[in-house]
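User: Hey, my collaborator sent me this sequence without any context and asked if I could get a structure. I don't really work with proteins. Can you help?
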Amino acid sequence: MTQACKDIWVFAETKDGGLSEVSLELLGAAKALAGQKGGGMKVAALILGEDTAQAAEEAFCYGAEIAYTIDSPLLKTYSTDAYTKAVCQAAEAYQPEIFLLGGTLLGRDLAPRVAARLHTGLTADSTHLEMQDGILVMTKPAYSENMMSKTVCETARPQMATVRPGVVTRNPYVANASGERIAIEPALSPGDIRTEVVGTHQEEQKVPLADADIVIVGGRAVGGKKGFRMLQELADKVGGAVGATRVTINAGWAGQSIQIGQTGINVAPRLLIVCGASGALQFTAGILNADTIVAINKDPNAPIFEVADFGIVGDIFDVVPSLIRQWDDAEELFYASKQKH
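Assistant: No problem. I've predicted the 3D structure and written it out in structure-token form, which is a compact way to encode the shape of the chain:
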């Protein structure tokens, strides 16, 4: 795409009819970039699904000025083929200047296919975005997080990036906000989809990992499913979620959906407790946006202590049960003091 482009688009992932957290964050990033660029650049949400009305209204409340909606039964469940074709049709028709997607499993699958079809570049896993001289500058970690690289796409359009969840701030919610809704009729047929979804399975998570304020992560030293049950007990006590390293996933101790790292999920909780993980670069790349990192490991020289804010040298099977007991004691003391007053 090389003709005149002007607006900034956010691919708005939906969840239970509303927008996902990363979509709300990207609308905030888009608003900031539009302010830096000036010149009438508008923020638009691109929403795909079977019924997008609720998501479009929510997008307006979080800063979108335009909502491009594509409704079709073929888009009810994510399909690489269908979503790629529909997104490219929209982009070719309305010519965005910038197109942002979340660095989620869906975004990582969709973005490179769209970029290839549109003959443009893509910066994956960006952690910072800014406008310089009217061009989007995309910053991302490189060389296993040891340095930061900046990328620009000077000629091809749209300028595309996937952005890590949790690294930008959402706009304040504005009740009853409105905007322009543009419905796009997709040129899709069942024959466009080469795969068939025969069933889905949702692993039960009391607190979604990507949204959790407290995350408890298990590494190799957890030793098996029994060890993860112990971590889940701690997570339940503190209202958090459990994550896992790749080695524990490969061992079959935990499900793929809670893998943290370069090939899994990037998390940004207020508190992250790493239990028995050595601190491989692939894993630590996914936790560096946490506000506070506490590491528990028997090896005082484990690399995880280099990225942790606080470290506990000890056996997780001694330390974690102690944390659970102390939490129980603290709760009991708290409620006892409330009753006195």
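In plain terms: The chain has a mean pLDDT of 88. You can pass these tokens on to your collaborator as they are.
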